[in-house]
Structure formats: C-alpha cells, structure tokens
User: Fold this.
Amino acid sequence: MTNKNRNLVEQVCSLIDAHEEGAPTLAELGATLNMSPTHLQRMFKKAAGISPRQYAETRRLETFKTKLKAGQSVTNSMYDAGFGGSSRLYESANGKLGMTPASYGKGGRGAEINYAIGHCHLGRVLVAATAHGLVRVCFGDHIKAVEAELGQEFPNAQLRRNEEDMAEVLATVIGVIDSHSQKTSNLPIDIRATAFQAKVWSYLTRIPTGFTETYGAIAAAIGEPKSARAVGRACGSNPIGVIIPCHRAVGASGDLTGYRWGIDRKKALLEIERASAG
Assistant:
C-alpha cells in the first residue's frame, strides 16, 4: 500500500471514529477530504478491503458487543454504540451475529446452529451454520474435539447435528481440503469480526492459491505496518478454516508458524494448493 493510500485510510477511519452519532455519509467524507464520494469509496475499498460503510458498521457492532458483554442493557449498548434505534441495530447485525443481539452476550442463547462432521485427510472436519451462513469450520483428531470447539464458542446455543441439511456444505469444504476442487466464494458466512479482523480476513482471501505472505507484509498491506503480531492473533481467531485461508500467513522467515489447528495441517493445505495450482 502506498503512503498516499495509507493516509487516506487513516483519515477516513479517524473521521468515522470521531463521528458522534451514526456514521458520516460518503458525501460528507468526500467533502471533508476534498474528493468525490465515488473516488473515495473506490480508493478506500481497494486499500482496506472493505468499504467505509462496512468499516463504520463493524466498529459500531464491536462497541455494541463490548458494552453488552460488560453487562450493559441492550438498549444502552445500542445507543452508546451509535445506533439510532433497534431497527438499525438489527439491520446491521443481520448476517454478522446470526442471532438476536441480546443472545450474543449470552453465549448464543436462542440461536439454532446445525452442524455436520466428516473425515478428510486432515482428520475430522466440522462445519456449522446458522440460518444466515457458516459460523464454524474446524479440524481435530476426534469427533469430540471438534464438537468441543463448537460448544466453547456457543455454549448456550441450540446445537444440532444435522448431516442431511449440511451435506452439501460439508462436501464443498472437504473438496477444498482434499483436492482444492471446490470453490467457496458462494458459501454464505455468518461470523463476528472486529474492524481489524475484518481487514485481515478480507486480505487473506485475496492471497492467491498456493502462495503465502508474512504477517508483517499483511500488516503493511492493510495499512497497519506495526501490527504484525495483531495480524497473527487475527489469523489465530479465524473461526472458519479454509474459507478464510489463514494458512497462507507465515512468519517473517517464511516458517509455517501459528496455525490454530496444527502446523502439520497448515503444511498439508499449502501442499495441496500448490499441487492444484501447478
């Protein structure tokens, strides 16, 4: 990312963060920065991987969830986060929480999540989804291990093993893992992300198949050159392995470090990708 683009991202983010109610419009941002709204939108999204509106929504949801988990009521959290009313909150949360905002702070209470478990050359793989999309793709050596990971994230959700309804999604994910023969771009996802995580995860999906980039290079590319460790943490918190290809992020020396499901699995995924790309 050029210094000019980095400065633009920083300026836009600062203006959005400083806005007291809601979020500034593209026209307002453009007027402040002396740019056309269309050009500003295009340059920001190219540099950051998300639009100014997506950044603003992510920031507000991040604030809302933090206050909710700290014990504030839904109403107070909603207004403190800059939502003008419940309809705006639910509109923004749709497809990001996959459950009512109140249930988010209660371990997914009230959410219905279907899941299925299959076998691939990485071991057991679990895929789980709400009605909005995927919430978890994880690996393990045993069925109990992958079910435990799902349960830790959503301890109060209604979890239902449903091989029939999840068969197509499971087959797609296994196809990606075992032969890279499937595309995942059309799979709907329903995951939570901070503004920083959203930038990292979006960038990871743009790294070409079979290639890797260092945490430092990713940090620089998203306009956060001093945040290599934070990039590593964002990769480690990725809830949907393979769909968000955090296995393509490597250490400064190129070593395959820091994969939450094991270095051997990271190595195997990259070998499959390189073989299919070749």
The radius of gyration is 19 Å. Confidence is low (pLDDT under 50) at residues 84-102.
